Amino acid sequence: MVTYSVTVINSLLRTCMNTSLATTDRGRAFEELFCYLLDQVPGLRTRRNALNHYNSEEIDIAVANTRMSNGLACFPHLFLVECKNWSNPVDSSTIAEFIDKLENRRIELGVLVVANGVTGDPETLKSAYHKAAMAQSRGHRLIVLSLDDLLKASTTREFTELLVDRLLGVVVSGTFQLL
User: Fold this and answer.
1) From CA 3, how far away is CA 97, in angstroms rounded?
2) Hey, how many other C-beta atoms are within 10 angstroms of the C-beta on 119?
3) What values do phi and psi take at 4, rounded to 5?
4) What angle do CA 94, 98, 99 make, to 5 degrees?
5) What is the reported pTM?
6) What are the counts of helices (DSSP H) followed by strands (DSSP E) for the chain?
7) Which pLDDT does position 179 carry in this prediction?
8) CATH class of 6-173
9) Mean pLDDT of 159-174
């Protein structure tokens, strides 16, 4: 188990929240924060900001998982991460685009990291929740983590427990859950 550096996290958070910076710079810092958390987990390796051959899709973070017992053993070998450091909730069309990236690569799991939630209603499966539910019926699971979720994890054990709990939530409910 690794304890995350409060200094590193606070530095990245300051950049994420600094409205004097360009949106792209704040978004990259948000990705860097999530990569920092992932890179400390045993058995995970990340690659950031890769474009496909046609320059039509960018992958924020691709993750290879060797499934170590003290890491994310129940996660698939490969999964993708999309980070949205937006001032508004992420909408269903953005979620649909992320699901398309998963489908185009035959990737089972996507992790969406959001600063300010998603649109819709989990009870009625409206908007973003509907897109995620439909994706699961086609073999693609989508979990969502908020910035608040990330800040609650001070160790790799807490972070992996959060990720596993969210994955279980998707399996049980049929769509992602924000707690």
Assistant:
1) 34
2) 17
3) -70, 150
4) 115
5) 0.93
6) 6, 7
7) 62
8) alpha beta
9) 92
